[in-house]
Each structure stands twice: as C-alpha cells, then as structure tokens.
Design goal:
11 helices, single chain, about 160 residues
C-alpha cells in the first residue's frame, strides 16, 4: 500500500482499531500523524504514540479528545508551548492539568486554559490577574459564564 493510501486510512474515522494500531507503527511520520489525530484511535495506541519523538505527532495527540489523561499530563509538561497549548485546548484535559497550565510562562497556553470549559472557577480567578490583557478578558468572560450557569442551576 502506498503512502497516500496509508495516510488517508490513518485519518479516516471508519478505519478499524486494528488497522490504526498497525498504521501507528508506520515508518512515515505523516501516517503516524494521521493516526495520532484520529478520534477513533484506541487509547492504548495513543499511549504508544505518545512516546514518539516527532513534534507533530505529539501535537496531534495533545489535540485528540480521546487521549488518555496520563498522556495529556505528560504532554502538559512538553518543552514546546504549541504542544502545551493543544493540551490546554483539549476538551478532555482535566481541571488538575489546567490548573498547572494556568501558571505556564507562555501567555498563549494560559489563554487556552481560560477558554477551556474544564477550567475551574478558582483557576479562572487566578487568570483574572494575568499580565496579558487577552488572558484576563477571556478569564473574566468564562468566569461570568460559569457563574451564570451556576446561578441558573440553583434557581431551578
């Protein structure tokens, strides 16, 4: 099978878990990137791919909503801010990881933390004091949304 076909299969939501596991071992990083970003990729395959040294593979794993929590934790410590940003954007990232990322040196990581629905009110309150205006404004908006939701739930 040629690389174009393998790459297409790697990103296809209907590719079987068994074939995705096989494609995750492909010599081509383009094929492995497709597998890493595919929401149908089994968690065990994502765990194995999480050890890959390729920046783009780790980046796509950080974005994948089915990436296991232990891999998101590891990628949340990645040396590259782009990968940490993808962890902060991931809707499956836990509040604990987001709390740590709320203290990241890079403003873009903190901005994505402020946007994530899993970020706690406490972490958003910390981000209200951020040095970056965009981070502060985003945290303020999402904190007010959380408070409005809580208020609406209490009045039901």
């Amino acid at each position: 099978m040629n690389i174009i076909r393998r790459t297409k299969l790697a990103g296809d939501l209907h590719t079987s878990p068994e074939l995705l596991a096989e494609l995750a071992k492909d010599r081509s990083p383009f094929v492995r990137i497709g597998v890493a970003g595919n929401p149908s990729t089994p968690p065990q395959v994502l765990i194995e791919l999480g050890k890959d040294k390729n920046f783009w593979i780790r980046s796509h794993i950080a974005e994948n909503p089915h990436t296991p929590p232990q891999i998101l934790t590891e990628l949340g410590n990645d040396k590259y801010e782009y990968i940490r940003s993808n962890v902060a954007k991931n809707p499956s990232t836990s509040a604990g990881i987001l709390e740590k990322l709320a203290k990241d040196q890079k403003w873009i990581v903190r901005l994505y933390v402020a946007e994530n629905q899993n970020t706690t009110a406490e972490s958003l309150s910390v981000l209200l004091k951020d040095e970056n205006l965009s981070v502060r404004q985003t945290a303020e908006y999402h904190l007010s949304c959380k408070q409005a939701e809580e208020s609406a739930e209490m009045s039901m």
